Amino acid sequence: MAQFQAQAPAGDAVAQLEILVRAAVFQSANALVGWLLQQAADRIDAAYQPKPGEVRKGREAIGAQGIFGRFPFARDYYYHAGKKQGHYPADAALGMEVSYTPALAKLICLEGADEPTYLKAERHLEKTGGITVLARQIQRVVQRVGSAAQAWQEREAQPGPCAAPILYASGDGTGLPMMPEEWQGRKGKQADGTAKTRQVYLGCVFTQHRTDEKGHPVRDYESTTYVSSFKPIGDFGPLLRQEAIRRGMGRAGQVVLLIDGAKGLENMGKDCFKDAVQIVDFYHAVEHAGSVLAALIGKEHPDYKARQRRWAKRLLKNKVKALIKETRQECVGQPQAVAVEEALGYFVRNVPRMQYGTFRAKGYFIGSGVVEAGCKTVIGGRCKQSGMFWSEAGAQNILALRCIHSSRRLEEFWKHRLNERSARNDALPLAA
Protein backbone atom coordinates (compact mmCIF):
# COMPACT_ATOMS: atom_id res chain seq x y z
CA MET A 1 0.00 0.00 0.00
CA ALA A 2 2.84 2.36 0.90
CA GLN A 3 4.55 1.65 -2.44
CA PHE A 4 1.25 2.31 -4.31
CA GLN A 5 0.76 5.65 -2.47
CA ALA A 6 4.29 6.72 -3.31
CA GLN A 7 3.71 6.07 -7.00
CA ALA A 8 0.22 7.64 -7.10
CA PRO A 9 -0.12 10.61 -9.44
CA ALA A 10 -0.27 14.09 -7.93
CA GLY A 11 -3.63 15.83 -7.59
CA ASP A 12 -3.18 17.92 -10.73
CA ALA A 13 -2.29 14.84 -12.74
CA VAL A 14 -5.47 13.11 -11.56
CA ALA A 15 -7.50 16.15 -12.58
CA GLN A 16 -5.91 16.13 -16.05
CA LEU A 17 -6.60 12.41 -16.36
CA GLU A 18 -10.27 12.99 -15.51
CA ILE A 19 -10.50 15.69 -18.18
CA LEU A 20 -8.94 13.42 -20.80
CA VAL A 21 -11.25 10.53 -19.93
CA ARG A 22 -14.27 12.81 -20.03
CA ALA A 23 -13.21 14.16 -23.42
CA ALA A 24 -12.85 10.64 -24.80
CA VAL A 25 -16.24 9.57 -23.44
CA PHE A 26 -17.90 12.74 -24.69
CA GLN A 27 -16.39 12.29 -28.15
CA SER A 28 -17.80 8.78 -28.47
CA ALA A 29 -21.17 9.74 -27.04
CA ASN A 30 -21.36 12.79 -29.28
CA ALA A 31 -20.72 10.73 -32.40
CA LEU A 32 -23.45 8.29 -31.39
CA VAL A 33 -25.98 11.05 -30.61
CA GLY A 34 -25.24 12.80 -33.89
CA TRP A 35 -25.68 9.57 -35.87
CA LEU A 36 -28.96 8.68 -34.12
CA LEU A 37 -30.43 12.15 -34.61
CA GLN A 38 -29.46 12.17 -38.27
CA GLN A 39 -31.07 8.77 -38.82
CA ALA A 40 -34.24 9.96 -37.10
CA ALA A 41 -34.28 13.19 -39.14
CA ASP A 42 -33.94 11.25 -42.39
CA ARG A 43 -36.93 9.06 -41.50
CA ILE A 44 -39.04 12.07 -40.48
CA ASP A 45 -38.24 13.95 -43.68
CA ALA A 46 -39.02 10.91 -45.82
CA ALA A 47 -42.45 10.49 -44.20
CA TYR A 48 -43.41 14.17 -44.04
CA GLN A 49 -46.46 15.33 -46.01
CA PRO A 50 -46.22 19.06 -46.83
CA LYS A 51 -49.17 21.24 -45.88
CA PRO A 52 -50.99 23.15 -48.65
CA GLY A 53 -48.81 26.08 -49.65
CA GLU A 54 -45.58 24.60 -48.33
CA VAL A 55 -42.74 24.18 -50.79
CA ARG A 56 -39.63 22.13 -50.16
CA LYS A 57 -36.59 24.35 -50.56
CA GLY A 58 -34.00 21.65 -50.18
CA ARG A 59 -31.83 20.26 -47.44
CA GLU A 60 -30.02 22.51 -44.98
CA ALA A 61 -27.04 21.48 -42.91
CA ILE A 62 -26.03 23.07 -39.61
CA GLY A 63 -23.54 22.47 -36.85
CA ALA A 64 -25.82 21.15 -34.12
CA GLN A 65 -24.77 21.04 -30.48
CA GLY A 66 -25.66 18.65 -27.67
CA ILE A 67 -24.41 18.17 -24.15
CA PHE A 68 -21.50 16.04 -25.46
CA GLY A 69 -20.36 18.41 -28.21
CA ARG A 70 -21.03 19.53 -31.79
CA PHE A 71 -21.96 17.44 -34.81
CA PRO A 72 -23.22 18.00 -38.38
CA PHE A 73 -26.99 17.80 -38.82
CA ALA A 74 -28.93 18.03 -42.11
CA ARG A 75 -32.71 18.22 -42.59
CA ASP A 76 -35.33 19.35 -45.08
CA TYR A 77 -36.61 22.92 -45.16
CA TYR A 78 -40.09 23.98 -46.27
CA TYR A 79 -41.38 27.49 -46.88
CA HIS A 80 -44.93 28.85 -47.01
CA ALA A 81 -44.90 32.01 -49.14
CA GLY A 82 -48.40 33.08 -48.11
CA LYS A 83 -47.62 32.91 -44.40
CA LYS A 84 -43.98 33.94 -44.91
CA GLN A 85 -43.08 31.09 -42.60
CA GLY A 86 -40.44 28.40 -42.75
CA HIS A 87 -40.62 24.93 -41.25
CA TYR A 88 -38.15 22.16 -40.45
CA PRO A 89 -40.19 18.96 -39.87
CA ALA A 90 -37.26 17.14 -38.26
CA ASP A 91 -36.56 20.00 -35.85
CA ALA A 92 -40.20 20.03 -34.75
CA ALA A 93 -40.44 16.28 -34.26
CA LEU A 94 -37.10 15.92 -32.47
CA GLY A 95 -37.50 19.00 -30.26
CA MET A 96 -34.47 20.87 -31.61
CA GLU A 97 -34.25 24.47 -30.40
CA VAL A 98 -32.43 26.39 -33.14
CA SER A 99 -29.27 24.26 -33.32
CA TYR A 100 -29.43 22.75 -29.83
CA THR A 101 -30.61 19.27 -28.91
CA PRO A 102 -33.58 18.97 -26.53
CA ALA A 103 -31.37 17.92 -23.61
CA LEU A 104 -29.02 20.87 -24.07
CA ALA A 105 -31.90 23.30 -24.66
CA LYS A 106 -33.45 22.26 -21.33
CA LEU A 107 -30.11 22.72 -19.58
CA ILE A 108 -29.55 26.13 -21.21
CA CYS A 109 -32.98 27.34 -20.11
CA LEU A 110 -32.49 25.98 -16.62
CA GLU A 111 -29.12 27.68 -16.18
CA GLY A 112 -30.20 30.90 -17.92
CA ALA A 113 -33.24 31.27 -15.70
CA ASP A 114 -31.66 29.99 -12.48
CA GLU A 115 -28.34 31.83 -12.40
CA PRO A 116 -28.25 35.55 -11.47
CA THR A 117 -26.94 36.52 -14.93
CA TYR A 118 -26.57 34.98 -18.38
CA LEU A 119 -22.79 35.39 -18.10
CA LYS A 120 -22.74 33.33 -14.92
CA ALA A 121 -24.86 30.71 -16.67
CA GLU A 122 -22.27 30.58 -19.47
CA ARG A 123 -19.44 30.08 -16.99
CA HIS A 124 -21.39 27.51 -14.98
CA LEU A 125 -22.05 25.39 -18.06
CA GLU A 126 -18.38 25.59 -19.02
CA LYS A 127 -16.97 24.81 -15.58
CA THR A 128 -19.35 22.03 -14.55
CA GLY A 129 -20.17 20.33 -17.83
CA GLY A 130 -17.50 21.43 -20.28
CA ILE A 131 -20.31 22.86 -22.44
CA THR A 132 -19.53 26.05 -24.36
CA VAL A 133 -22.57 28.25 -25.03
CA LEU A 134 -22.11 32.02 -25.08
CA ALA A 135 -24.19 34.18 -22.75
CA ARG A 136 -25.86 35.88 -25.71
CA GLN A 137 -26.94 32.52 -27.12
CA ILE A 138 -28.26 31.45 -23.71
CA GLN A 139 -30.35 34.63 -23.63
CA ARG A 140 -31.76 33.96 -27.09
CA VAL A 141 -32.78 30.41 -26.24
CA VAL A 142 -34.35 31.51 -22.94
CA GLN A 143 -36.36 34.20 -24.73
CA ARG A 144 -37.41 31.81 -27.49
CA VAL A 145 -38.65 29.18 -25.04
CA GLY A 146 -39.80 31.67 -22.39
CA SER A 147 -42.55 33.13 -24.57
CA ALA A 148 -44.03 29.64 -24.87
CA ALA A 149 -43.60 29.17 -21.12
CA GLN A 150 -45.65 32.29 -20.43
CA ALA A 151 -48.40 31.08 -22.77
CA TRP A 152 -48.32 27.72 -20.96
CA GLN A 153 -48.76 29.50 -17.62
CA GLU A 154 -51.87 31.20 -19.04
CA ARG A 155 -53.41 28.05 -20.50
CA GLU A 156 -56.97 27.14 -19.59
CA ALA A 157 -57.03 25.02 -16.46
CA GLN A 158 -58.34 21.50 -16.20
CA PRO A 159 -59.72 20.92 -12.66
CA GLY A 160 -57.24 18.89 -10.69
CA PRO A 161 -57.54 16.61 -7.66
CA CYS A 162 -57.00 17.89 -4.14
CA ALA A 163 -57.14 15.82 -0.97
CA ALA A 164 -55.95 18.66 1.27
CA PRO A 165 -58.35 20.08 3.88
CA ILE A 166 -57.10 23.63 3.17
CA LEU A 167 -55.89 25.15 -0.11
CA TYR A 168 -54.39 28.65 -0.08
CA ALA A 169 -54.10 31.16 -2.89
CA SER A 170 -52.03 34.30 -2.49
CA GLY A 171 -50.86 37.12 -4.70
CA ASP A 172 -48.58 40.13 -4.48
CA GLY A 173 -46.90 42.64 -6.75
CA THR A 174 -43.38 44.04 -6.90
CA GLY A 175 -41.69 46.65 -9.07
CA LEU A 176 -38.98 45.69 -11.55
CA PRO A 177 -36.35 48.12 -12.87
CA MET A 178 -37.15 48.59 -16.56
CA MET A 179 -35.69 50.16 -19.68
CA PRO A 180 -36.87 53.79 -20.16
CA GLU A 181 -39.22 52.91 -23.02
CA GLU A 182 -41.09 50.56 -20.68
CA TRP A 183 -41.98 53.14 -18.04
CA GLN A 184 -42.16 56.44 -19.91
CA GLY A 185 -45.54 58.10 -19.46
CA ARG A 186 -46.52 55.88 -16.55
CA LYS A 187 -47.46 57.16 -13.11
CA GLY A 188 -45.18 56.13 -10.28
CA LYS A 189 -44.01 56.76 -6.74
CA GLN A 190 -41.11 59.09 -7.51
CA ALA A 191 -41.20 62.66 -6.23
CA ASP A 192 -42.28 63.96 -9.64
CA GLY A 193 -45.02 61.32 -9.97
CA THR A 194 -43.21 59.29 -12.65
CA ALA A 195 -42.17 55.64 -12.58
CA LYS A 196 -38.92 53.82 -13.20
CA THR A 197 -40.29 50.36 -12.52
CA ARG A 198 -43.10 48.17 -13.82
CA GLN A 199 -45.39 46.16 -11.60
CA VAL A 200 -45.15 42.40 -12.00
CA TYR A 201 -47.53 40.12 -10.10
CA LEU A 202 -46.67 36.79 -8.54
CA GLY A 203 -49.31 34.33 -7.43
CA CYS A 204 -48.89 31.12 -5.49
CA VAL A 205 -51.07 28.21 -4.46
CA PHE A 206 -50.21 25.77 -1.67
CA THR A 207 -51.91 23.31 0.66
CA GLN A 208 -52.03 22.50 4.36
CA HIS A 209 -52.88 19.25 6.10
CA ARG A 210 -51.87 19.86 9.70
CA THR A 211 -50.77 22.21 12.45
CA ASP A 212 -47.79 21.77 14.75
CA GLU A 213 -47.85 20.99 18.47
CA LYS A 214 -48.50 24.69 19.21
CA GLY A 215 -51.41 24.89 16.80
CA HIS A 216 -49.49 26.84 14.18
CA PRO A 217 -50.23 25.95 10.53
CA VAL A 218 -47.68 23.87 8.60
CA ARG A 219 -47.42 24.26 4.83
CA ASP A 220 -47.28 20.95 2.95
CA TYR A 221 -43.80 20.13 1.69
CA GLU A 222 -43.25 21.07 -1.98
CA SER A 223 -46.91 21.97 -2.40
CA THR A 224 -46.35 25.55 -3.64
CA THR A 225 -46.80 26.42 -7.30
CA TYR A 226 -46.35 29.86 -8.89
CA VAL A 227 -47.65 31.99 -11.75
CA SER A 228 -46.42 35.42 -12.85
CA SER A 229 -47.69 38.19 -15.11
CA PHE A 230 -47.09 41.78 -16.14
CA LYS A 231 -50.78 42.14 -16.96
CA PRO A 232 -52.96 44.42 -14.82
CA ILE A 233 -54.63 43.07 -11.70
CA GLY A 234 -57.89 42.56 -13.57
CA ASP A 235 -56.15 39.98 -15.76
CA PHE A 236 -53.86 38.57 -13.10
CA GLY A 237 -56.77 37.58 -10.84
CA PRO A 238 -58.26 35.12 -13.36
CA LEU A 239 -54.75 33.74 -14.00
CA LEU A 240 -54.33 32.98 -10.28
CA ARG A 241 -57.83 31.50 -10.18
CA GLN A 242 -56.94 29.19 -13.07
CA GLU A 243 -53.91 27.98 -11.13
CA ALA A 244 -56.10 27.33 -8.08
CA ILE A 245 -58.55 25.36 -10.24
CA ARG A 246 -55.62 23.40 -11.67
CA ARG A 247 -54.55 22.57 -8.12
CA GLY A 248 -58.01 21.29 -7.19
CA MET A 249 -59.74 24.32 -5.68
CA GLY A 250 -63.14 22.78 -6.39
CA ARG A 251 -62.31 19.69 -4.28
CA ALA A 252 -60.43 21.25 -1.38
CA GLY A 253 -62.05 21.20 2.03
CA GLN A 254 -61.59 24.97 2.41
CA VAL A 255 -60.10 27.65 0.15
CA VAL A 256 -58.29 30.58 1.78
CA LEU A 257 -57.15 33.72 -0.03
CA LEU A 258 -54.21 35.56 1.58
CA ILE A 259 -53.70 39.16 0.40
CA ASP A 260 -52.10 42.33 1.71
CA GLY A 261 -55.22 44.50 1.69
CA ALA A 262 -54.32 46.64 -1.34
CA LYS A 263 -57.39 47.86 -3.18
CA GLY A 264 -56.57 45.97 -6.37
CA LEU A 265 -56.04 42.68 -4.54
CA GLU A 266 -59.19 43.30 -2.53
CA ASN A 267 -61.17 43.61 -5.76
CA MET A 268 -59.45 40.49 -7.11
CA GLY A 269 -60.71 38.59 -4.08
CA LYS A 270 -64.26 39.74 -4.66
CA ASP A 271 -64.20 38.91 -8.38
CA CYS A 272 -62.21 35.66 -8.46
CA PHE A 273 -62.40 34.08 -4.99
CA LYS A 274 -65.76 35.19 -3.64
CA ASP A 275 -66.46 31.83 -1.94
CA ALA A 276 -63.06 31.67 -0.24
CA VAL A 277 -62.17 32.73 3.28
CA GLN A 278 -60.24 35.97 2.70
CA ILE A 279 -57.50 37.04 5.10
CA VAL A 280 -55.52 40.27 5.05
CA ASP A 281 -51.89 39.65 5.93
CA PHE A 282 -51.51 40.27 9.66
CA TYR A 283 -48.13 41.95 9.38
CA HIS A 284 -49.44 44.46 6.86
CA ALA A 285 -52.33 45.13 9.24
CA VAL A 286 -49.87 45.92 12.04
CA GLU A 287 -47.93 48.22 9.69
CA HIS A 288 -51.14 50.07 8.86
CA ALA A 289 -51.88 50.31 12.57
CA GLY A 290 -48.63 52.26 12.74
CA SER A 291 -49.96 54.60 10.04
CA VAL A 292 -53.12 55.21 12.07
CA LEU A 293 -51.11 55.97 15.19
CA ALA A 294 -48.71 58.20 13.25
CA ALA A 295 -51.69 60.27 12.14
CA LEU A 296 -53.21 60.22 15.63
CA ILE A 297 -50.26 60.91 17.95
CA GLY A 298 -47.19 61.05 15.70
CA LYS A 299 -44.32 58.59 15.33
CA GLU A 300 -42.18 60.52 17.82
CA HIS A 301 -44.71 60.10 20.63
CA PRO A 302 -43.25 58.04 23.51
CA ASP A 303 -46.29 55.71 23.47
CA TYR A 304 -46.18 55.07 19.70
CA LYS A 305 -44.44 51.67 19.80
CA ALA A 306 -46.33 50.47 22.86
CA ARG A 307 -49.67 51.37 21.33
CA GLN A 308 -48.76 49.65 18.07
CA ARG A 309 -48.00 46.48 20.05
CA ARG A 310 -51.38 46.79 21.80
CA TRP A 311 -53.07 47.11 18.40
CA ALA A 312 -51.36 43.87 17.32
CA LYS A 313 -52.53 42.01 20.42
CA ARG A 314 -56.09 43.26 20.09
CA LEU A 315 -56.22 42.47 16.36
CA LEU A 316 -55.38 38.88 17.29
CA LYS A 317 -58.47 38.92 19.53
CA ASN A 318 -60.92 40.02 16.77
CA LYS A 319 -61.05 43.57 18.18
CA VAL A 320 -60.71 45.45 14.88
CA LYS A 321 -64.17 47.04 15.16
CA ALA A 322 -63.47 48.17 18.71
CA LEU A 323 -60.13 49.67 17.66
CA ILE A 324 -61.80 51.64 14.87
CA LYS A 325 -64.49 52.95 17.23
CA GLU A 326 -62.04 53.91 19.99
CA THR A 327 -59.68 55.67 17.59
CA ARG A 328 -62.51 57.71 16.10
CA GLN A 329 -63.67 58.73 19.57
CA GLU A 330 -60.15 59.75 20.57
CA CYS A 331 -59.75 62.19 17.70
CA VAL A 332 -63.23 63.74 17.67
CA GLY A 333 -62.87 67.47 17.17
CA GLN A 334 -59.11 67.20 16.78
CA PRO A 335 -57.27 68.71 13.78
CA GLN A 336 -55.87 65.30 12.83
CA ALA A 337 -59.34 63.70 12.59
CA VAL A 338 -59.40 63.74 8.76
CA ALA A 339 -55.95 62.14 8.46
CA VAL A 340 -56.85 59.52 11.06
CA GLU A 341 -60.10 58.65 9.28
CA GLU A 342 -58.21 58.25 6.01
CA ALA A 343 -55.72 55.87 7.66
CA LEU A 344 -58.55 53.93 9.29
CA GLY A 345 -60.09 53.29 5.86
CA TYR A 346 -57.77 50.29 5.44
CA PHE A 347 -59.32 48.65 8.49
CA VAL A 348 -62.89 49.72 7.74
CA ARG A 349 -62.72 48.06 4.30
CA ASN A 350 -61.23 44.85 5.65
CA VAL A 351 -63.07 44.12 8.90
CA PRO A 352 -64.28 40.65 7.77
CA ARG A 353 -60.74 39.83 6.57
CA MET A 354 -59.16 40.76 9.92
CA GLN A 355 -60.83 38.31 12.30
CA TYR A 356 -57.43 36.93 13.21
CA GLY A 357 -58.53 35.25 16.43
CA THR A 358 -61.08 33.19 14.53
CA PHE A 359 -58.62 32.40 11.73
CA ARG A 360 -55.92 31.24 14.13
CA ALA A 361 -58.40 29.09 16.06
CA LYS A 362 -59.17 27.30 12.79
CA GLY A 363 -55.47 26.72 12.14
CA TYR A 364 -55.19 29.06 9.13
CA PHE A 365 -52.13 31.01 8.06
CA ILE A 366 -52.67 34.72 8.72
CA GLY A 367 -49.50 35.95 7.01
CA SER A 368 -48.69 36.19 3.30
CA GLY A 369 -45.05 35.26 3.85
CA VAL A 370 -45.11 32.52 1.22
CA VAL A 371 -45.85 34.81 -1.71
CA GLU A 372 -43.64 37.59 -0.32
CA ALA A 373 -40.75 35.14 -0.08
CA GLY A 374 -41.55 34.14 -3.67
CA CYS A 375 -41.30 37.78 -4.75
CA LYS A 376 -37.81 37.88 -3.26
CA THR A 377 -36.56 34.54 -4.58
CA VAL A 378 -38.46 33.82 -7.80
CA ILE A 379 -38.53 37.46 -8.98
CA GLY A 380 -35.95 39.43 -7.02
CA GLY A 381 -33.29 36.73 -7.06
CA ARG A 382 -33.04 36.95 -10.85
CA CYS A 383 -34.56 40.24 -12.02
CA LYS A 384 -33.68 42.77 -9.31
CA GLN A 385 -29.91 42.43 -9.25
CA SER A 386 -27.70 45.52 -9.21
CA GLY A 387 -27.55 47.32 -12.57
CA MET A 388 -30.33 45.31 -14.22
CA PHE A 389 -32.88 46.99 -16.49
CA TRP A 390 -35.43 44.88 -18.33
CA SER A 391 -37.79 44.94 -21.26
CA GLU A 392 -41.22 43.55 -20.47
CA ALA A 393 -40.73 40.53 -22.74
CA GLY A 394 -37.24 39.86 -21.38
CA ALA A 395 -38.39 39.77 -17.78
CA GLN A 396 -41.71 38.06 -18.45
CA ASN A 397 -40.16 35.15 -20.32
CA ILE A 398 -37.46 34.44 -17.80
CA LEU A 399 -39.92 34.70 -14.90
CA ALA A 400 -42.26 32.23 -16.60
CA LEU A 401 -39.44 29.67 -16.71
CA ARG A 402 -38.53 30.38 -13.09
CA CYS A 403 -42.14 29.92 -11.97
CA ILE A 404 -42.42 26.63 -13.84
CA HIS A 405 -39.12 25.45 -12.36
CA SER A 406 -40.10 26.49 -8.83
CA SER A 407 -43.41 24.67 -9.33
CA ARG A 408 -41.55 21.45 -10.27
CA ARG A 409 -43.28 21.39 -13.68
CA LEU A 410 -40.34 21.64 -16.08
CA GLU A 411 -40.76 18.15 -17.49
CA GLU A 412 -44.51 18.70 -17.93
CA PHE A 413 -43.85 21.96 -19.80
CA TRP A 414 -41.17 20.49 -22.06
CA LYS A 415 -43.41 17.54 -22.91
CA HIS A 416 -46.19 19.98 -23.83
CA ARG A 417 -43.79 22.03 -25.95
CA LEU A 418 -42.56 18.97 -27.83
CA ASN A 419 -46.12 17.76 -28.47
CA GLU A 420 -47.18 21.22 -29.64
CA ARG A 421 -44.26 21.53 -32.04
CA SER A 422 -44.63 17.96 -33.30
CA ALA A 423 -48.27 18.68 -34.08
CA ARG A 424 -47.10 21.01 -36.86
CA ASN A 425 -46.07 17.87 -38.75
CA ASP A 426 -49.49 16.26 -38.34
CA ALA A 427 -51.08 15.45 -41.69
CA LEU A 428 -54.59 14.95 -40.24
CA PRO A 429 -55.56 18.65 -40.57
CA LEU A 430 -55.27 18.16 -44.36
CA ALA A 431 -58.53 16.19 -44.26
CA ALA A 432 -60.43 18.99 -42.49
The low-confidence parts are: 1-6
Rg (C-alpha, Å): 28 Å
Strand residue content: 15-25%
**Continuous helix count:** 17
Apparent shape:
elongated
Indicate the structural class.
alpha+beta
Termini gap: 76 Å
What sequence of helices (H) and strands (E) makes up the elements? HHEEEHHHHEHEEEHEHEHHHHHHHH
Largest sheet: 6 strands, mixed
Can you describe this structure?
The structure is a single chain. This protein has helices at 2-7, 11-47, 89-94, 102-114, 118-129, 135-153, 180-183, 233-246, 263-272, 282-296, 304-315, 320-330, 337-349, 356-361, 369-383, 392-406, 410-422, and strands spanning 54-66, 69-80, 85-87, 166-177, 197-211, 217-219, 225-229, 254-259, 277-280. It has 432 residues and is of the alpha+beta class. It folds into three domains: 2-153 and 408-431, no CATH class; 157-279 and 369-390, no CATH class; 282-366, no CATH class. Helix 15 (369-383) packs across helix 16 (392-406). It is elongated, with a radius of gyration of 28 Å. It starts with a helix and ends in a 10-residue tail after the last helix.
